[in-house]
Specification:
It is built from 14 helices and 9 strands. By secondary structure, the chain is of the alpha/beta class. It is globular and about 65 Å long. Bound molecules: NADPH dihydro-nicotinamide-adenine-dinucleotide phosphate.
Length: 296
Amino acid sequence: MNRVAFLGLGAIGRPMARHLAPPRSALTVWNRTVAKAATFAAETGASAAATPREAAAAADIVVTCLPSSREVEEILGGRDGLLAGMRRGMVLADCTSGDPASSKRIAAALADAGIAFVDAPVSGGVSGAERAALTVMVGGDADVLERVRPVLAAFGSNIVHCGPVGAGHALKSVNNAMLAVHLWSLAEGLAALTKAGVSPRLALEVINASSGRSNASQNLFPERVLSRAFPRTFRLALLDKDVGIAAGVARDQKVASPMLQLAAELYRAAHAELGEEADHVEAVKVVERWAGAEIA
Ligand code: NDP
C-alpha cells in the first residue's frame, strides 16, 4: 500500500484526498487550519499530522494542493517544514496551480536532497475531483511520473505528461486564461445583447449551437449566472493568480500577448473589487456593474 501525505484540504484538495484515504493508501493529511484535518481524518480513517514535517515523515509520496507556489515554498522550509521530514528517494507531486519558475526552483532545491519533483496541476473542478475525473497535467521526468501515477490516478482519469518540470504549470495557466477570457468576453457580449433587448437565455441557445460556444456559454452561464446562483467552487483570487501566471509565461517567452496581459489586468481589478472569497464566475458581476445591466 502506498504511504501518501496530502497537504492542503481546500475546496479541491479535500475531494482529491478523499480518494486516497484507506484502504486505497496509508494517508496522512496536514492542513493549516488544524480542525479541517482533524474532521477529515475522523471521516476517512486517515491520520492527521501536526506539521508538514510530521506528514512527510509518515509517507513515501507527498502531494501538495495549496493556493500558489508561494505557499508551497513556505511549507517546504523551516524546522517543521516538508524538507525536514522527507528522505532521499521520495517524490513531491505538486497539484497546486503554481508557476513554472517557482517549480523549477523547488525541483532544484529538492534534487539537492535526493528528492524528485513533478508539477501536477489539475483541471475539472470540484465536481471532477469528487468523481475522480480530473485531468492531471504533469511536468517532470517520465520515470518520476510513473512512480506517482498510482497516486494521481486515484483522483485523475486523464494523466498527461506535458514536458519537463514547469510544463504542467505553464499549460494549466494557459487553460485557465482561456476560461477567464471566455467568461469575461461572454459577459460583455450578453450584457450588450440584454440592453439591446435580446434575451440572454435565447442568446446562449444560439451561441451554443454556433461557433462562439465555450464551457462558459454551455455550462457556467446557464447554471450559475442566469440562475443568479453563483456557487463558490473556485475562488476568483485563484483565477486572477492563474491569468497572471499565463501572462508572465507569455512575457518570459517574448510572445506579444496583449490579450493575455489585458485579461490579467481585468481579473486583478475584479479580484480587488470583489475580495478573497468571491467565486470566479462572480467576475461577471463587475462587467454587469460597468454595463448597468444584469444578465438574467
Ligand atoms: P482553497 O482556497 O479552497 O484552499 C486553499 C488551501 O490552501 C487550504 O487548505 C488552505 O488552508 C491552504 N492554505 C492557504 N494559505 C496557506 C498557507 N499560507 N500555508 C499553508 N496552507 C495554506 O483553494 P482550492 O482548494 O480551490 O485550490 C487549491 C489549488 O488548486 C489552487 O492552486 C487552485 O488554483 C487549484 N485548483 C482549484 C480548482 C477548484 O475548482 N477549486 C480547480 C483546479 C485547480 P486553510 O484551510 O487553513 O485555509
